[in-house]
Amino acid sequence: MNISLYGISVWILPIIIAITFHEAAHAYVALRFGDDTALKLGRVSFNPIRHIDPFGTILLPGMLLLSGSPFLFGYAKPVPVNFRGLQPLRTGMIMVALAGPATNIALALAAALAFHILPLVPADGAPWVARNLLNAFSFNILLAVFNMLPIPPLDGSRILVGLLPGVLARPFARLEPYGMLILIGILILLPLAGSQFGLNLDFVSRLLRATTDSLQQLLLLLTGNA
Questions:
Q1: Are 148 and 155 in contact (CB under 8 A)?
Q2: What pLDDT is stored for residue 49 in this prediction?
């Protein structure tokens, strides 16, 4: 139980900060491009309470952590955006979608840079602070990479809609209401079906691991930690 409590204590801050800043960035950039929907709902805020989803932010990561899962993930309440209110529409859509992952990369950079001040932390607290920084570094990169997948309703799909010509963007955008089913199919059902035939169809997880590993190495190199 002590190990579990320690594990929770070094994950809770990185997860809450990563998710809160991700959603707040979406809300702030939407406001900058003319849509005040999130502002009216109080989502242009760094107050975690305004963004926390009880299941996605607390229960899901907690269950994964306590079960010893090698893959830790979570999410917050999506920021509502009226894309028709964005000016210009396509640029606004891309920038709003990009804001969340870009903020997570910035947080990962900040965590990596903070590794250099660990010698200044009292010896008793240094291991706990180091673990928080390491978890913040890895979780923010994972959150950014995962959200950049071009699968509805992730940020990458909205960036793709903003880049595609209208004849392709419109039918792709219509997939968003079915996004959660698509994600479950690709992330869970497809790998399970493949395993029945001796096939490894978990290509998304492989892509995530390869991309996050490469990005981690790059950021560690840029911040003098490699």
A1: yes
A2: 83
Whether the bond into 153 is cis, omega within 30 of 0: yes
Question: How many residues appear in the chain?
Answer: 226
Residue carrying structure tokens 């809450």? 16
Mean pLDDT of 32-46: 89
**Residues designated catalytic:** 23
60-117 pLDDT tens trace: 777 766 666 555 666 778 888 888 889 999 999 999 999 999 999 999 999 999 999 9
The confidence score (pLDDT) of residue 160 equals 94
Tell me which DSSP letter residue 73 carries.
Answer: -
Asked if 174 and 113 touch (Cβ cutoff 8 Å), the reply is: no
The distance from CA 48 to its chain's CA centroid, rounded to whole angstroms, is: 15
Give the CB-side neighbour count of residue 60, counting CA atoms within 13 A. 14
**Tokens, residue 8:** 């929770």
| Cβ-contact 189, 181 below 8 angstroms | no
Of 156, 143, 8, residue with least CA distance to 76: 143
Mean pLDDT (whole number) for 173-202? 79
In the structure encoding, which two tokens stand for residue 175, read together? Answer: 């997939």
**3-class state of residue 36 by DSSP:** coil
* Residue 78: how many other CB atoms lie within 10 Å: 14
Whole-angstrom distance, CA of residue 120 vs CA of residue 118: 5
